[in-house]
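Think of the structure tokens as a kind of shorthand, similar to the way a musician reads notation: each symbol stands for something richer, in this case the local conformation of the backbone. In the example below we present two proteins back to back. Begin with the first one, reading the sequence and then the tokens, and try to describe in your own words what changes along the chain.
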Amino acid sequence: MEHALSPATLSELRRPRPYPAVSVLTPTHRREPENTQDRVRLRNVVAEAKKQLDADPAVTRERRADVADQLDRALAEVDLAHTEDGLVIYAAPGEHQVWSLARAVPERVVFSDTFLTRNLVSAQAAERPFWVLSVSADRVTLWNGGADRVAEAADSGFPLTRSRENFDAERQERIGDLPSTFRDEGTRHFLRDADTAVGRLLREDPRPLYVTGEQAALSALDELGTVTRDAVHIAHGGLSHGTPDAVWQAVRPLLDAEVRRDTAAVARELDSARGHKTFAAGVDELWQSSRDGRVRLLAVEENYRVTVRDDGDHLVPAVSGDLDARDDIVDEIVEQCLETGAEVRFVPDGTLRDADGIAGVLRY
């Protein structure tokens, strides 16, 4: 299952495809007892997609069989033991993908000539993705970080490893010989290669970068590095051979502090906007402003959800399941704001209590 949404991946998902490009969305749960019905619910929504496929007169028999097979393959790849808060299946002629999201999605099936991406985009923005590079003299490991986890990014050209005759990095750490280890030309060349590799990655998928390692390793990167020199350094050794949980515990205090700083900064911007008459709040006002490209900053509480319908002039409250109900209007607004160059910040629940969970600063 996929987790990391890079700009290149998003562009690929959005390209036109032969009809039908099927998007299947369903909420999932991380824990019991809520997750006991996830398997049944998933099978039912895939069955509904197949039913719509069978009934669609615009789909040929050959293409119908192809897409149905892709849905079956995607279903077989789902690992419900490791799902998060939402699941998205994409299926089109000759291809399929499965995405696990750390953000809830409404249950729905969409047929089009492109995949539905708004929920992926919103989940990515909410996760505040980051990279962690763990450095030692013999191994450099890259970790993919999100809202509440890290996982090894094993498909990105990492880890980088090196071996050398009579080279024992762990022994040298024990006997205190790390400074000479990181002055060794072979080690310095190894670190330059790591810096170059992560530089390429950041050009393709820019995110905040944290670098962990012994102080001697971090000092070497201060001398040799480019992107790694400018990253946030955490003096914590052993994580290049460590576990995801150990890495998470090392970076979590910095992430929590960053959330507090960001939340305070957003609150200040919203207060300033009130004084300058550029403040907006509520889904109706922000939906229209986002479509007009007027939103400069959008702030959304992390778990804010609302269901609406469009009465022609305004968005009005609705009940999920109602005709024309829009369950993911918040994700629509997030995607539209990002498309028009706005900054999107997710803040802790309760931060925007006086703005009904969603607020913005307008450009004019």
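Once you have a description of the first chain, move to the second and do the same.
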Amino acid sequence: MNRLTASVSTAAVAVGASLALLAPSAVGAAAANVVQQVRAVDLGPWKPWIWLQDDQADVNRPPGIQEVSPFADTVRFNGSLHLSVAGGQQAQAAHHYTAQVPLSTVAAAELSYDSYVRTVEEGATGTAANLQLPMVCRGAFTTLSFQPQLATDSRGRAGVVPDTWQHFESTGASLWRTSRALPTDPALPAGSDSPLSTYAAECDAPGDGVVGLTASVGRLGDAEASLDTYVDNLTANGTTYDFAVEGLAQGLIVLDRGSQDRPCHHARYPCPRTLGGTASGFVSFTDPADGPGYRAVGTRLTFSNGRALAPGDLTVTANGRPLTLTAGPGGTLTGVVSPTPGLDLNPNGTYRTALIVTHRDHPPRDGGDGGTGGRDGLKVRAELLATGYEPLRPTGVRTSTAVR
């Protein structure tokens, strides 16, 4: 596995204030994690994160693909870190702390990451990118690597499952592999696996500690094999590192009710407008050139109008098909549009859903508003959904409008 050398760690300290804002402080396990976004401009020589070739110890090692990718993660849907290797290559992104942190402190806080392995021809199986802790133990430098192939993910699946996002979190039973032999008692040989608690108990001499955090894909045992991986939300020592592209998708709702030429039947009340009738138009989500890539998208529609709506109050057609509506919180109605076959929304793309919304008239309520139940008309909110840990998860990209 790749490792941060002592010389690189010393150089990172010399960066000083430029890294001080990005270096995590020691926190307890109960503290909330601070989220820091990592963009392409944050990676490179003398940046907060460095690539494989930026480490002087690794300049002669052929790098694979190392990039902040549009491939959307499953938490914030804003991109991820792409690490891919073939033919003896290695790939990594490494972050240096400005000061060593005791391994016992790091082990007491959350240690986790999200991992995705894409199935490719001649691809290695049963392995993924490693979350690594470069450190000093009893004066010797080593790298501890989390072993996802020996772990169980947050959904109870054992090992690496291809073509799906997995969340791995280090537990007391999780195994970490040391890249070098450690002069402990008893000695821990290179390539051996132990829980973090074993290392923490042994690596507590003056000067010992963790010097950074790395996401890495090492050289594969088969020179002809390849491995295409994505990682994100690396969490260690109280900080979650969120790899992200610059842009995000934007939503738009256009609904036109057309002319309302029906007479007002409630003579005792003013009838400036009625809610009954039909509105037609569309919902669209447009992804900019620097946006993420959303997989297998859908749309959640939410309808409200200031009073409790019942499923029979609205009839909605999405892309020419009736949309099933269910009661939601606050007297709303919700429905999910799931295109068949599945559609992806990629940078420079637009995902659009044609809508026809018909609302049934109601007798006037206390507001004397001619049956609208509220003077703002029917409100429509749309949220972009995409595949995350499971299909059709909320992405946080929303838009709304009022049909008056």
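Compare your description with these statements about the second chain. The chain has four helices and 24 strands.
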